[in-house]
Each structure stands twice: as structure tokens, then as C-alpha cells.
Amino acid sequence: MNPEILIGLNQSIGLMVLLSTSIGVLIGLIVGMIPGLTISTGIIVFLPITFVLPPDVSIALLLGLYVGGMTGGSFSAVLLNIPGTPSASATAIDGYPMASSGNAGRALGIAITASFIGGIVSFLFLFLVAPILAEFALNFRTEDMFSIILFGMTIICSFSAGSLIKGLLSAAIGLAIVTIGQDPVMGTQRFTFGEVNLMAGVHFLTALIGLFAIPQLISHISDQTKLGAVTQSKIKSILPNVSDLKIVKTPIILGSMIGSFLGTLPGAGGPIAAFISYDYAKKISKRPERFGSGTIEGVAAPESANNAVTGGALIPMMTLGIPGDPVTAILIGALIVHGLAPGPLMFLERADFAYGVIFSFFWANIFNFLIALLSLRILVKVLDTPRSILMPSLAVLCVVGSFALRNNFFDVYIMLFFGLIGISMKWLDMPVVPLLLALVLGGQLEENLRVALTGSQGDISIFFTSPISLSFIILSIFSVVWSFRSNRKYKQIIN
Amino acid sequence: MKFMNHFSKYLLSFVFIVGATPALAFPDKPIEFVIPFGAGGGADIEGRLLAKEMSKVLGVPLTPVNRKGGGGAIAYTHTKNSKPDGYTIAWNSTSVLTTTNLGNTDFSYDAMDHVGRVEFQPQPFAVKANAKWKKFSDFVTDCKSSPGTLKVANSGTGSATHTAAIALMNAVGCKVIHLPKGIKGRNKSVLNGEADAMIAPLTGAVNLTKAGKIRLLVMPTDNRNEIFPNVPTAKELGYNASLDLFRGLSVPPNTPENIKTILADAMTKAANSEAFLALAKKKGFKVSPLGHKDFSALLKRENAKVKNIFASAGLLKSK
Amino acid sequence: MRRKNIIAAMVIIVITIIYGLMTLQLPTRSLPDTPGPTFFPWINVVIILFLSVVLLLSSVFSTKNFNLEFKQEETQSNHNLRALFALIGFAVYLVTLPSFGFLFTTIPFFSFLMVMFSEKRPLYILSSSVGLTFLFYFVFRYGFNIFLPQGALHDAVLKVIL
Fold this sequence. Notes:
heterotrimer; B: alpha/beta; D-Maltodextrin-Binding Protein, domain 2; 2 domains; 6-stranded mixed beta sheet; 5-stranded mixed beta sheet; 12 helices; globular; C: mainly alpha; 6 helices; about 80% helix
């Protein structure tokens, strides 16, 4: 066995690492549970604070948050019929009817178990596939990287909600924002307005805190509908019994595989995987007519899928440096801040760290299972925490986070400015996720484009003569055209 | 972690901060330690350890802050504009000469005061382990027979590695394509064959060389390196090219002499600390502290060299 | 939606034209046969202009009736006013923070936001905002080494207390 695997395993079981994994899981469960706070927001807000920690500890915390968030989302979906995160939407379909009929504990137990199995299956997938893919990805050249990043961005646009044009526009604006500061190849100052604080560019996290957290904060202020009282639905026994497990066995395994696979595709992400898994579970079920009225399979299938997405999404992130979903996009940024740019080279130069991350993901799933099962009754009380405490705390975290990134108060103003942009984009129904991706990947896109053209001495054909680059360019075009066509179809249905 | 370990210390320091009296002696508060490059790179790892060791000597925390961008321009501009009270120090490198001569800043290296040098390392010329070039002369022969086709990767346009690559190729009389692949992309491009060779700081190449993935052909430096004594220097091969990557400390201009002396002493002690020497041994850089005077002379010499190299490539103040 | 799209497209076009004009003024510094620093901004200008013109045209010629949406927005305005108020409060907070310090600005800001979230018990507001602000301050400063701005007032007040 590769000795680095053992070093990685060792790294992941350091006391600090395990501790921060479990803290991350706890934060994730809470953040995921609160409707209107997405996992992305949770990670974005907590990320700057973790930068003082060593990279392995910091990443472990974020992975815990990611995994915990996926599970936490299902709690509010089951108990309140409001998914805590978009990925838990499908869970509410059968989870809430179960809770209404007094089976909340049973539904949550199944959800937690399904999440656990989904996570572990995707861990195995990650552990086995990532090193192989990384080895292959070592062959990717500058021009190939350009096309892969381009593909990652177009496919996010075509999957994002709303119109394709607005998605692409959002991405293009992100690319323009990235050009503020020093250019990535020669260091020329661009669009800094002579402002020293803009010389290093807009930090992607500063922008993301503004774009994600501020609009959520504001929308909570303008929409203060009360959540239903949670404590009314009594949670009885949580541990699922054997007969239940027998019923959900197949949907869980199927869902885990669907999630792991869809997670690897950039852009698909949790919500889509959960719905597809739900559909499949319904198709193979002997009693499909009961789906929607509170079946345990209907809870198990989406929950296993959305947690399996996490491991899947880590694969392109760790091996190519291309995110599988918004959360992994943020994780890439986090790793870059730590000087550990994810990519094929990570498995070669810092294989110990790469395996450390993979094993931390494993522990995150274990902790998630244990913490969720043991402290479920206490955790759901968070849903009763008044928003008048939660939201001001979020606002303070935004300020501290954007300041702590570079110890620069100017960044806090930038954060608020992006908050205004985020609010406007929400008002205009423009998806923010393409902009997020552009902020994370835009610099690399420009750098790879220009370096590739430097290598070819200005010859553009380089992007079409390399087979890898060519296939990803074709895929990018295909994803845009496909989205455009499906959009038109969708409009026809509405009309 | 820190919270647990130092809880009692924090309680004490809280009392201390609250009752803080006006400055008596330097230093009496945390010092900002500006690192001109991103976290996790060589400059960062080495800088953070030095800062930690210096904290022990000075008795106040040195807080490392990464101000990356523009090949160091951001960090140096920040340092130059800071108060000359010794509470802002920059972890400089050869970049203080390259980024200023490239025109990324509107001042030259002597706009700051320099405390001293801590360490230096050669910047070897490397090819993939299974490349056909066994010796540097093989590469030169190929390069001369087909000028302008071989690609040499570096850490970025106008970086120290790029500068060394230009110097070496000028001395040899070769025309190559310089690929600014960046610190991360540089090694990968050699491994996958996109670039034919690269110039890397020794610390960035040491692991791959030991793992047998790349081969060092020549080092444009003055003396052979202790870790790879088999690799010839450019001088031995008859080429007049030498540019090391040095690192040291800079402070804002007009910093009082006594503060610089305190910092220089702490720097030397930290550089010779057990932990820092151990890192040097592992990573391949040479700890060799120089005081203010010797360092200034070195900077002057190297600056003239960098200017000449940039002028030859059309990079001088190209902005 | 149609009206919003038209506004969005026009605003974006104006900003992009400014962006393009600024790109014109950038130094065209480049090595032979390589794209320079203005290369990528130009690509952005072209893409954004193209997309926003498409958005503009498709919205102008869209057949959808927009009177209906407009009415729905009216009822929202009361809540939007509250949101606007919160944003202004946020801005005031950020402007005063560097000079007055974290502790002395965060406590009133926290209380203000709590009021914005329809909290009415004064003692509860006071205790939560003071308690949480101090908690944040100490966790960040001593747990995470984040030195939040203290402001001139901070030292003076603490000296008086002790």
C-alpha cells in the first residue's frame, strides 16, 4: 500500500483534526437545519475564521460542515416541511407526512442512516477514483485546463435556475470582477482606480460573503413569517429498526450510487441528485402509489443521494481543481488560500495531505452519524432559537470574516458593496452561483488562456488540436445549446 | 487549540493590555510580518517559521500576513507606506529586485530600509527524469539546432526563476519560449511534457528530484549545493550566469537605527535556531545571515544584474 | 420580470462601456507573440455586451404581461422599507467601526438589528447584544488571533474603568 495513505490517515486522526471535524459537523447540522441559511453561506462565513488554523484542521472543519449541512437540511424538511438546504427539498415530500403522523423520529432516523451510508459509499468512490483520475489529469496541459474550466463554468450556467442568458451574464460579470487588481501573468495593475487596497484584487471570499450572506440577512428582515413550532412534533425513538432497514436497503444503495456519480459532474449538485434518486426509488418500489404520503423509502432515497453528492463533488475538486458544486468551489478557494491548490499535482507532491482530506471526509461522515443520532433532540431546539439573535450574529460574523481575511477594513466595505450587488441580483432573478464560480476560477481561466497562447506563440488552434481540450470545448458548447433548447421547451409548456 | 493551551496566558495578557502604559521599549506590541507570497509556498513556510522564532526572541508575537500579488509589489508597497516604527516588517526575497525593475511598483528596492539577509538558495535548471538530455550540454545542442521551440517553464513573468532562466539562456546563447506557468503549474508542466525544462527554486524541486521524477542539469549559482553536490554550477560549465533566490527582512524607510539593530539581532538568532536550521536542511536552502551593510552591498550588486537581464529581454520597466 | 430585465440590461451595458473605456487606458505591455493584460478584459467586454443586448432585445420583444407582477411588488414595499433601513444601519455601523472600535459600535448595531427582527423586550435586547458582542470579541481575539479594530475611544474608556 502507498505509505502516503497511512500518513494521510494519521493526519486525519490527529486530536485537533478530529475535534475540528466534529465541530464542523455540529455547525453544519445547525446551519443546514436553519431554513434560509445554505451550506454555502455557512462555509463562506466560517471560512475566514478558520484561516488561522493549520490547513488540515481548517479543511477538516469545512468538510464536517459540508457533510453535516447536507444532513441538517433534512431535519427542518421533515419537521417543518421547509428544507433547510435546497438539497433536502425532495426529503420533505415524504418526510413531512411522516412527521405529521407522529413518526418524526422514525423519519429522522432513516434520514440520518441513509445520509451515513450515502456518505460512506461516496467516500469509497472518492478514495478509489480520485488517485486514478489525478494520475490521468497530470497529462492535462495549459490549453486543456482552460477548456475544462470553461466547461465547468458553462455547465453551471446551464444548470442554474432562471434563464440561461442571465446565468451566462452572471458568469461574465464575475470574470470582469476578477480582472480587478494585478493581472495573473504579468502583474499589471488593472481597474484599481489608484486604490492601494484594490491592488491585490477583490478577494473572492469577501465578495462571496457579500453576495450570499447579506441578501439572506435582508430577506429575513423583510420576510418575518414565523416558523411552525417544532417541539410539537414529538420525536420518539430515533434508531431505525431492522424491518425498516430491510425496506430501505435498495433505495439507499441506489441513491448512494446516483449521488456519488452525479456529484462528480460539475454543476449537478445535491438537489438534482436527490430528486433523481427519489424518482428511481419510486420506480423500483412495489408500492409507488404510497410515495408522497410518508414512506420511509421516500426519505431514504433522496437523503442517501444528497450526502453521496459530497464525496462525488470532491473528486473533480481534488483531482482537477474544478468544483462539482458551489460548496466545493468555495473549498477550492480555501485550499488555495492555504497554498494547497487542489489539482493532479496535489496527489503527487502532497499525497499525504490529499489522503488526509479524503480520510477527514470519512471521519466527518462517522461523526455526522453519531452526533446527529445522539444529539438530535437537543439540535432541533436550534429551530426554536429566535432569528433576532441568529441573524444579527450572522451580520457580525460577515464583518469579522471579511476583515480577518486580509486584516484590512477596506475589505469590509467591499463586502457590503457586494451585498448590494447580491440584493440587486436577487431582485433581478439573476443566479449568483455562476458568478461564484467565475470568482473562484476566473483568474485561472485567464491565466491558462494567456499562458497557452504564450506557449503556442499566439496560435489559437492549440485549443482545438489537443484532443482533451477539443472534447471539453465541444461539451461546453453542447451544454449551452442543450440548456437553451430545454429552456425553450420549458417556456412552451408554460405558454 | 491555542485557546486551550494559552488560556491562562491570555488572561494575563488581557490584564496587561488593559493596563497598557505608553511605549517604553521596542517592541511592546505585536509586529506585522508581511509575506509577499501566498500561503503554503516556500516563502510562506520559511517566513512563518522565522516569524515564530523571532517572536520567541523578541517576546511579542509576529503576526504573519500574506499580502501576495504582483510578484511582491503589493507587500513592498504596503511596507514602504507603513509607519517606520518597526512594527511592520517585510519578508523580502529576490522579488524585491525583480518586481521593482519590472515596473510593478513606482519605486526601486532602495525605497525601503533593509535589515539583513537570512538565507539563500540556488535555482536549478531541471528536466524530466526520462528526458533525453542527460547533461546540460545535450540541451544546449538541441536548443541551438532549433531555436525558439524548446519551452522553459518558470514561476511567472519577471519572477526570480524567469530572471535566472533568461540569464542562463543568454549566457548559453539559446532562444527558448519562456512559459510563465506559475509556482504550482511549473513543476506539472515539466512532468507532463508541456514544458521541456524549468527553472525552480531548489526548495520547489527538491522533493521531485529525490523522488526521481525530475533531473537537475545545472545550477546558475556560485558554489555547488550541499544536497545535490553532483549538479554542476553554470560557472563550471563555462557560462557566466548566477542568480540565487535570497530572503531577508525589510522595513519602512527611515526606521530608527536602534530598532533595526534589535530586529537584526532577533533575525540572526531566529535564523540560527534549531527549528529553522532543521527546515533548511529538509528543504535545501542555506541559512546565511547577513547584516545590514553586507546585505545592502549584495542588493546593489544583484540589482545591477537583474536590470541588465531585464533590459536584454525587454522587461525593464515594461509597464 | 420584463421591466426588470430591461433595467438590468441597460445598467450592465453602461457599466461595461465604462469598463471598456478603462481597458483602453491600460498599458499595452506585452512580450512578443503573447496576449497582454488587456486581452482578457476585451473578451469580457464583448461577451457581456453581446449577452446584455440579447437580454434587452428578448425582453423588449417579449409578449408577457407585466402589470400583474407590478401589483404584487406594491404590497412588499412596507417590508422593503425595513430592509432598506437595516442596510443603512449596516453602512453606519461600518463607517463608525474603525474610529470607535468593535465593542462600542457592535453593541448598538446588534441591538438595532434585533429591533429590526421585531424584538421588543428591552432588557433582553440589551443583555443579548452586550453578551454576544463580548463573546465574539474574546473568541476572535484570543481564540483566533483576529485583532479587530479597537478605535481610540476603547483604550480611553478602559483606562477610566480601571
